[in-house]
Amino acid sequence: MRKTVDVLGIPVDAVTMKEAVEIVGRFIEEGGTHAIYTPNAEIIMQAQRDPELKEILKQADILTADGAGVVLASRMLGNELPEKVSGIDLVQEVFRKYAKNGLRCYLFGARPGVAEEAAVNIIKDHPGIVIAGCRNGYFTDDENDGIVADINRASPDILLVALGAPKQEKWIHSNLDRLNAKVCIGVGGTLDVLSGRVPLAPEFLRKNGLEWLYRLCREPRRAGRMLDLPRFLLRVCHARLRSGKAGRKRG
Fold first, then answer.
1. So what's the pLDDT on residue 222?
2. Number of helices and strands (H, E) in the chain?
3. Bridge partners of residue 186, in order along the sequence
4. Per-residue pLDDT averaged across 47-52, rounded?
5. Average pLDDT of span 113-142
6. Is residue 111 within 8 Å of 129, Cβ to Cβ?
7. What is the largest CA-CA distance in the chain?
8. What confidence score (pLDDT) does residue 3 get?
9. CB atoms near residue 246 (< 10 Å)
């Protein structure tokens, strides 16, 4: 049975990395088309301002906590998520587990050339994986039907959509019913990392929830967006206070 934790109105799945990888495998076996999103604190704050995004996240087949901030928030709200399950880590673990099964992947998004470079590295690092197609993330509305048709011809097990939030979540949601892909995952900057163009944060920063600091140092233009992190924690504190008051009134 699916167990979720409410984080500011977003039902984040209480799963470990191992469980999330197994769920992806089950989705592939079941057939149909499934949507997976990996919200971090920034995306959850976007959803507070964007009712459409909030509803899309609530309709996902699984939501994993991409960031220590979301796990911390769940702890503060009294119903702790077991661990961080970031998009990049989930994708890598899925590759490791299912490459030997001939996993078919389609890479969609990022700047021109990035998906192709990522494909080369994926095939090198995970023998057995089939890259069924690549497409950059620059397209017009008139080109969308052609992109969907190309994905459907490829018939991938996994479709990685790297358009950035909230564009990738909205694209998956609006096209889900006509996609011939078993699992669609919104992966943000994952293709940039897999291509080798953007390095991952050092392991000690990732383990201690300081990836945001690394990204800010590399991309100072993100400073405005990073303001959502303290806003997120402030909202969580308010939610905790409200729930505490409600509990005292019931008592």
1. 65
2. 13, 8
3. 161
4. 98
5. 99
6. no
7. 60
8. 96
9. 10
Amino acid present at 93 = E
3-state DSSP assignment of residue 5: strand
What is the amino acid identity at position 152? N
For residue 139, which of 119, 174, 115, 163 has the smallest C-alpha distance?
163
C-alpha to C-alpha distance for 52 and 63, rounded to whole angstroms: 16
User: What pLDDT is stored for residue 152 in this prediction?
Assistant: 99
Q: Rounded to the nearest 5 degrees, what angle is found at the Cα of 246, between the Cα atoms of 245 and 248?
A: 65
> Alpha-carbon distance 158 to 107, whole Å?
9
Neighbours of 231 (CB within 10 A): 14
pTM of the prediction?
0.93
Average model confidence (pLDDT) across the chain: 93
Average pLDDT for residues 189-214, to the nearest whole number?
Answer: 84
User: For residues 199 and 116, which has the higher predicted lDDT (pLDDT)?
Assistant: 116
pLDDT > 70: percent of the chain: 95
Tell me which long-range contacts 112-117 makes (C-beta under 8 A, separation of at least 24): 112/136, 112/138, 114/191, 114/192, 114/195, 114/197, 115/162, 115/191, 115/195, 117/195, 117/196, 117/197
